[in-house]
Amino acid sequence: MLRRLLPRPDSGEGLARFGLRLLVVALCAVTLLQAMRPAVYSTRKGVESISPHSEQQASMRHMVEQLGRDIHEQIPAGTRVAVVDEDPNWRLRLAAAATDQGVVVVGDTIAPGAMTDPSAQLEIWRESDPAAPNGVRLMTRKPVTS
């Protein structure tokens, strides 16, 4: 490849053209490396999430999987639920687990203290319970209306 990049002495190619060709190759290489950054980052994060490097990551994954199983067992697919957990990270995890099980998540799962969507049929949240499998239990209730 390098041999093709360098000008031959008998080609009559000037130094300016060679410099321009070298600049184009360098820009292409930089563009390719910049385009690969998100893919490399996503791959690294994906591998970190499934490899049990720490006990805490493995424990968190087991809790989320347990909540997903509980949602599957307790809530029929298609039910409209509002996630009302106090912790915003757990609201997102519960919303993702519910969506994976075919449950429709309604309302704002990000904003703290957001009002429950009036179309929600159930409210869900998680509670720590040492007696529950993996130390966490899914709680459900009919939405409280004022």
Report on the structure:
With 146 residues, this protein is α/β, with parallel strands linked by helices. The chain folds into two domains: 2-50; 55-141, no CATH class. Helix content is 50%, strand content 13%. The chain contains four helices and four strands. It has helices at residues 2-5, 15-50, 55-74, 88-100, and strands at 80-83, 104-105, 122-128, 136-141. Strands 2-1-3-4 form a four-stranded mixed sheet, covered by helices on one side. β3 and β4 form a beta hairpin. α3 packs across α4. The mean pLDDT is 83.
Task: Summarize, please.
With 146 residues, the chain is of the alpha/beta class.
Got a strand count? 4
**Classification by helices and strands:** alpha/beta
Q: Helical amount among residues, as a percent range?
A: 40-55%
Total domains, how many?
Answer: 2
Low-confidence stretches: none
- Helical run tally: 4
- Compressed to H and E, one letter per element, the order equals HHHEHEEE
- Oligomerization: single chain
Mean pLDDT: 83
Describe the biggest sheet?
Answer: 4 strands, mixed
- Give the C-alpha Rg: 27 Å
- Give the N-terminus to C-terminus distance in angstroms: 74 Å
Arrangement of strands in the largest sheet:
2-1-3-4
Shape verdict: elongated
Query: What amount of the residues lies in strands?
Result: 5-15%
